[in-house]
Amino acid sequence: MKFFDKPQRILETGDHLIDTRWFTGVTLSYTYEVFKYFKSDGVAIHYSDEEGNDISVSWPSLLAKVLHYKNIFEHYGLKKGDRVAGYVLNRPDTVAAFLATNALGAIWASCPPEFGDKAVQDRFELIEPKLLVAHTGYTFRGKYFDRSEVLQKLEEKIPSIEHVIVLDLDFTEESYELDQLTFEKVGFDHPIWILFSSGTTGKPKAITHRTGGMILEHCKALGLHQDVHRGDRYFWYSTTGWMMYNYSLGSLLLGATLCLYHGDSFYPNPDRLWQFAREFEVNHFGHGSVYYSHLLSKISKLSNAAHQSQLKSIGATGSVLHKEVAAALKQRFPNTHIISLSGGTDVCSAFLGGLPGSESEPGELQCKLLGAAVEIFDERGEKIINTPGELVLTAPLISMPIYFWNDSKHSKYLGSYYEDYENIWRHGDWAEETARGSFIIYGRSDATLNRHGVRIGTAEIDQSLKQLEGVEDSLVIHLNHKGQDELLLFVKTSKGLSTQEINRHLKTNLSPRHQADRIWQVDDLPYTLSGKKLEIPVRKILEGQSLVEVVSLDSLRNPSAIQFFIDLNNTLYESKH
C-alpha cells in the first residue's frame, strides 16, 4: 500500500478501544491501489446475469467508465466528504460509480433495488446523500421488476438528494491514459463507505469504515487467508446490501479479476453458478452457507460442478456452515480449500477464517485471522477453551468502525459492542475455541439472519407489518434446526389475513427475501415484564429446549402466551407436510 505522506505514528491508543488510531499523518487512495494493477490488455471484471449479459470489462474500459462518472459527479458539485447513495445491482457499472466516488474523496453507501422504498429510506436518510446513483429495475427468476417509482419516492422523501444518476452497462473501448485519472488523497481514517446494520433492534445503524483499514484488512483477509493472488479470478455471490460485496471488491486490490453475477443462484437451473464459474475459470467461489445446504440434494446432478479443476477455494459465510455440508463439499471438491468465514458488517471482514496449506475440519473455522484478538468468554468474562461462550475481541482490530454516522457521542457504538464487558468488544456470536486453535460457531446471539446475500432484521419485518391493516403485533424467528432453515412468522391480528396477503406486503415494502416460509396467526405474543419480546426464548423452545431451560414464567408479562409455542414444537415439522 502506498503512503503519499509518511506516518507520524503507526499506532495511537487511548483509554478505550474506539480511541485507537492507525498510521496518523499518512495520505492514501483506494482508487490508486486498484488502478496500480492497470494493464492495457488485461480484464478487470467478468459479469453475467439472467438477462443474457456476459461482459468482460477490460482495464481501459473500466478506466473510461470511472472517468465518465467522475466527470458527472464533479459537474454536480460532489466533493470530499459528501455521500453518494447507490440503489444498485452488483454490476460493473456500480463498481465504476464507487471508484469515481472514491476518487473524489466522497463516501459510498448502497442498497440493492429489491429493497422497498421504506427499507431504503430508513438507511439513506441517516447519511443525507448528495447524489443518488441507481438502476431503474432488475430481472430475478425471469421476471422484470421496475423500480422507477421507488426512485421517485426516494428523491421526494430524502431532501438532501440533489441529483439522481441512472447507471448503465455501456462500456466503451475508447483509450484513456492512466494519468488522466486524478484522485483525492485522504487520511487513513477518512471514511470510505457506510454499511448498514440489519435493523434487528430498531432502525439500521450507519456503520462507517476507514479507508486505510479496509485496504489493509482486505489485502490480509483475501491475500493471506484465502490465498488470492494477482491474476486469480474471484467470485462471491452477493447483493450490494451485504458486506461481502464490499469485501469482494478487495480482490481488485490484489490484482485479481473480480467476477460478478446478478440473478437467482438456482435459476434457470441449479447448475447456473457453476456454469458461470466454469465459463470464466473462477479460482475462488463464495456464497452464503445456506446456498450450499440447498445445493447438497442437487449436487450429484450438476454437470458443471464436476469440472472445476481451476478452483483453489470455496468460501461460505452469513450463517453456520454445518459439518455435514462442509464434509460433502470436501468430498465433491477434494483438491479445493473449503473456507468458512465468520465476521460481520461491523468490521466488513472476518475474525475467523481459512489457513491455506492446512487441512480444514468440517464444521470448524480453521483459525483467527491475523490481527484479530478473538477469545471466547464465559459469563464471568474469563477465557475458556473447548466450551461454548461469547465471542469477543480483546484488542483493537484495524477494520473496526471509526464511528456510527450521526452518533457524535458514540452512544450507539458503545451500546452495540461494549456494554457486557469493560473495553472488550462482544460480537454476539455463540462460539467455541478448540484446543487446536480452530473455532466452532453455534449461531448468533441476536435474531439476524442472512438469506441468499440479504441480511434481514426482525425489527424491519415487525415495523413493516405494523403498516398492514389488521396486524397488531408480530414475532419472526429464524429457525436453523434439524436440517431446516426457515423464517417463521407469528402475527397477532384483529381480523383474518391470508398468508398470501402478509407475504405480498413484505415483498412489496421490503423485498422478496423478507417473505416468511411459514406463517401462523396467534392470539397473543409473549413479553417480559420489562416489555421485551421473547425472540430468543421462543426460538430455543422451537429448537426443542424445555421451558425451564430458556425462561422463567415469573419474568413474563403474559405467561399464557408461551404455551402456543410449546405446543407447536411438538408438531412443527410433522405439520409441514
How would you portray this structure in words?
With 577 residues, the chain is an alpha/beta fold. Among the domains are: 215-398 and 410-450, ANL, N-terminal domain (Rossmann fold, 3-Layer(aba) Sandwich); 457-571, ANL, C-terminal domain (GMP Synthetase, Chain A, domain 3, 2-Layer Sandwich). It contains 16 helices and 32 strands. Helix 10 (323-332) links the parallel strand 18 (313-317) and strand 19. Helix 2 packs across helix 3 (92-103) and helix 6 (211-223) crosses helix 7. The protein is globular. The mean pLDDT is 89.
List keywords for this structure.
single chain; 26% helix; GMP Synthetase, Chain A, domain 3; 16 helices; 7-stranded mixed beta sheet; 577 residues; 27% strand; 4-stranded parallel beta sheet; Rossmann fold; alpha/beta
Task: Provide the β-strand percentage band.
Answer: 25-35%
> Count the strands?
32
Radius of gyration: 23 Å
The count of helical stretches stands at: 16
What fold name stands as the CATH topology of the domain at 215-398 and 410-450? Rossmann fold
Percent helix, as a range, is 25-40%
Query: What is the overall shape?
Result: globular
CATH second-level architecture of the domain at 215-398 and 410-450: 3-Layer(aba) Sandwich
CATH superfamily of the domain at 215-398 and 410-450: ANL, N-terminal domain
The spatial strand order of the largest sheet comes to: 5-4-16-15-17-18-19
CATH class of the domain at 215-398 and 410-450: Alpha Beta
First CA to last CA: what distance?
56 Å
Structural class: alpha/beta
Query: What's the overall average pLDDT, rounded?
Result: 89
Low-confidence stretches: none
